[in-house]
Amino acid sequence: MDLISNLALGFSTAASPENLFFCLIGVLLGTLIGVLPGIGATATIAMLLPITFQLEPVSSLIMLAGIYYGAQYGGSTTAILINMPGESSSAVTAIDGYQMARKGRAGAALSIAALGSFFAGTVSTFLVAVFAIPLTAIALKFGAAEYFSLMVVGLVSSIALAHGSIVKALAMVALGLLLGLVGTDIYTGTPRFTLGIREYADGLNFVAVAVGVFGIAEILRNLEGEKTRTVLMAKVSGLWPTKDDFKRMAGPVLRGTAIGSALGILPGGGAILAAFASYTVEKRVSDHPEEFGHGAIAGVAGPESANNAGAQTSFIPLLTLGIPANPVMALMVGAMIIQGIVPGPNVATEQPTLFWGIIASMWIGNLMLVVLNLPLIGLWVKLLTVPYYVLFPIIMAFCSIGVYSVNSNVFDLYAVAMFGLGGYLLVKLRCEPAPLLLGFVLGPLLEENLRRAMILSRGDPTTFFTRPISAILLGIALAVLLVVFLPSVKKKREQVFQEED
Q1: Closest CA to 302 of 353, 263, 358
Q2: Is this structure's pTM higher than 0.85?
Q3: Dihedral sign computed on CA atoms, order 185, 189, 193, 197
Q4: 220-260 confidence digits (pLDDT tens)
Q5: Helix H or strand E encompassing 183
Q6: Residue 389, class by beta-carbon neighbours within 10 Å (0-12 exposed, 13-18 middle, 19+ buried)?
Q7: Which terminus of the chain, N or C, has fewer Cβ atoms within 10 Å?
Q8: Which residues neighbour 351 within 8 Å (Cβ) at sequence distance 6 or greater?
Q9: Of 221, 249, 208, which Cα lies nearest the Cα of 117?
Q10: Which uninterrupted H or E stretch holds 191?
């Protein structure tokens, strides 16, 4: 009964005219960003953070969430029509989706992707609602030592699931943790690592770091690699799948939903990993594996269901533990903190309207995506012809205005430029910036819980190993790190991310 009453509260919140409007704006923007290759949900949310500060917390978080899972939908459109994934998690969809389009079945491929995503989104949203309260109850029993160990697991997992070299990913986490230390010491009130710059006394501006590392750096990278996009079809027809299509997609959708729901919780890139895992599973269980790579329906239905389910369940650790599972969730944590909300299990008890409103809005947003996306296919096709060099000046101006509006401080614009160039340099060095952002967001929380645990234990470091939950979490972190360095696992990991690139 508690679940039903909580969901009723959530739907009454999400269905208010204001929240419905911002949910619609979020999913439309998300789809648009997914359709336009090279921008990405992370960069978009980073750029839109300044605007959301003027909104109510529930409305702003509903809009940001809509952008995230809307981008998962939109990414499949470009993957199918022009063989260029709008989102990393849609890279697998391009393999068979584009081949279906070449055979004149672009409409069916787009519908299969949309319907599979909707089913997966519905199931995973229900899972978020079911597991939210039990996990929150467990999290309320966590002390400082347990939270420290949990964050260590999150950071180690982000290293394991980051692109490229593990050593580089480890370095990015370390750099993020160091950037998070800039500012005033939380216990002594002493400025540290500020280089004598007054503006750094409160720490580095989260918006400036996020917009610079993801927004500006992504623009520079895309300008460097800009190429002409050729749309396969000017008009898409035959949107509704046949009876045989439904029969072929049923199993892959169910399996993809299960895989995505499980892997989406993992910190680092669960939705991306889920898409690749789903494709691998479908190819192995298929009676006709030779069809994969030549327009197999299972190659579209499975991965699209998996990446959307993974996107939804990544909200579970955010809403219950306050731990971000990927860069987008890290931005959501930053948005909550700036709105005056402390992420963690207390959100469910102290702000149930916000907590359940976000969960309910996920299902509403998924429904909006299905209803709106298919009729608007023609519009998305036209947008694909817009050159990127036309878009980037508008995006740059939008970023600058947004960042300045947060604190009305010109120094923040210099910071954006600095972190933008730094982020571009990281891209050129093939360093994944996602672990850096996770380290930057979790760094202050990690330090706070480390020092609190040490104070409570009177300086005894064994407290992290004598408390059962903390010891288990640290054991998991160590096991993940050791497994990643195993030759067989390391080779498989490199194959997966090489395929994505």
Answers
A1: 263
A2: no
A3: positive
A4: 777 776 555 555 454 555 567 778 878 888 888 899 888 88
A5: strand 183-184
A6: exposed
A7: N
A8: 57, 341
A9: 249
A10: strand 191-192
